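step: validate -> pass
step: tokenize input -> pass
step: predict -> running
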Amino acid sequence: MDALHTAAGFRMDHINFAAVITALAHVWEAARRNDRFRAHAGTPDKLEALHQRYVQSLRPLLADMAAQQLSTVLWSSAKLGLNPDTAVPEMVHGMTLRFLNLIDVVEVKQLPNAQNLANVLWGLATMRHPAATTELVDTVCLRFARLTRRADTKQRPTAQNAANMLWALAILGHPAAAEVVDAVCLRFARLIQHSDAKQRPNAQEAANVLWALATMGHPAAAEVVNAVCLHFARLTQHADAKQRPNAQNTANVLWALATMGHPAAPEVLDLVTTHFAHLLGSTNAKQWPDTQEVANVVWALGTLKHTPPDDRLLDAFLAYFHVLLRREDQRTRPDAQSIANTF
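step: predict -> pass
step: emit ->
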């Protein structure tokens, strides 16, 4: 990659530079998901150096960057855990200012689409970047909400776009207008009923929406929350195990419901808690929740005043802590507070 830049750098434009940064993020993310991946000691430094070089190359081309390049560079930088400002001071501010200007352009083809809008806020939220000003976030949100009602359904946000938008607002602590949040929630709920299964939300997206609503303290419509809950519960029984919620998703859903004080249907809670018990008892330790997630589930069930349908959850708790307490490495054992919070 470094040699490619040296040899072809003079021929590359803003589209190419942005594409390379995005490719770096995708490759790094895919590698980290591989259980057998072990990064060499110098890999993170080399990755950061490459990122800085391409960001520096983009600086003089900033005025030419379209919404697609701006949003993917911010998203990719956040995925890599790198801040473009490290390479070029105030680079993110310049990018967001350019993006903000594009939202008001007359040429329709230059307008940011739903994914562009969601990616910009997701990237800024992940980086906890101060460039997420009130003006920028409000403008992005308003444009995004309008897209949920576009006559051309292909222009409307996907489930991932909607979930990322709400998650970003929650992380940023931004008081978005209630009608904006409601419009995004309604779009998400409608996608649950989509005739194309690929358009329906996955478990993480459903969990993120509920977590975001609870974190923002937004009084979402009961029918929206119920629809997301039921969809999530059904995913716990999906024929494809890869489509089922993981421990973090499950704990976040229960935490969110308890935080919102939402009276979810008992049969929905039964399915979710039974799935959590299954994960606790999994022979694959990578599926296990951490002690904070276990404590959150217990707190949530107590707050919701929900009694699990059988003893499987309690048995799974006992077996889980029994295994953890026998670990040789004391640093990985649960502390007294974690156990007390659970029982």
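step: describe -> The CA atoms of residues 237 and 244 lie 7 Å apart.
step: cleanup -> pass
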